[in-house]
């Protein structure tokens, strides 16, 4: 966190930042600790966050605040509509564009949200609990493998379908603990025909559960 100072009109508390972003105080604290939102502490130990940093994060595509502001669907917001919420965790802009183009052409009832790093993904998962998580493995900071392990260790997320995507070979995957039970693996470059089949199965599951 930064140690520079600024005027009181240009900063806010953690609680005020949480209100602006529409997320929890603990989520703001995680973003600060991860260095995604800059902040500093006063001599009394109180965290101060520049308003400019809060609004910059809010405007970031794929952020939890951005998702909420633009009304991206979540299971809680779309009861019984039979659509499947998919969170794609991918730090490559080109790969995200490939996903978007391919998935849009399939005509499946999918609602997609993209996150470009693991920290944002965990916040989005806590906020919306997607039906499916498609995670790249190798990313800066918190990688997709850590996100997947977090999901698997949370009983409230046991119904989330998980697929991981990576260019790592079998030995490299084994060094990271291997492919967890119940997780589908897609090697890069992605075979979009196989991915379409997987997503079709996820949509069928969602439709059965929404009846």
Task: Reconstruct the topology from this structure.
Blueprint: E1 11-12, H1 14-21, H2 25-33, E2 40-41, E3 47-50, H3 51-58, H4 64-69, E4 84-89, H5 93-104, E5 110-115, H6 118-128, E6 132-136, H7 144-152, E7 161-166, H8 170-175, E8 184-187, H9 192-210
Parallel strand pairs: 4-5, 4-6, 6-7, 7-8
Antiparallel strand pairs: 1-3, 2-3
TL;DR of this structure?
By secondary structure, this protein is α/β, with parallel strands linked by helices. It is 42% helix and 17% strand.
What does this protein structure show overall?
- It is a single chain.
- With 211 residues, the protein is of the alpha/beta class.
- It has 9 helices and 8 strands.
- The protein has helices spanning 14-21, 25-33, 51-58, 64-69, 93-104, 118-128, 144-152, 170-175, 192-210; strands at residues 11-12, 40-41, 47-50, 84-89, 110-115, 132-136, 161-166, 184-187.
- The chain has a 5-stranded parallel beta sheet, sandwiched between helices.
- Helix 6 packs parallel to helix 7.
- The longest helix is centred in the last third of the chain and has 19 residues, at 192-210.
- It is globular.
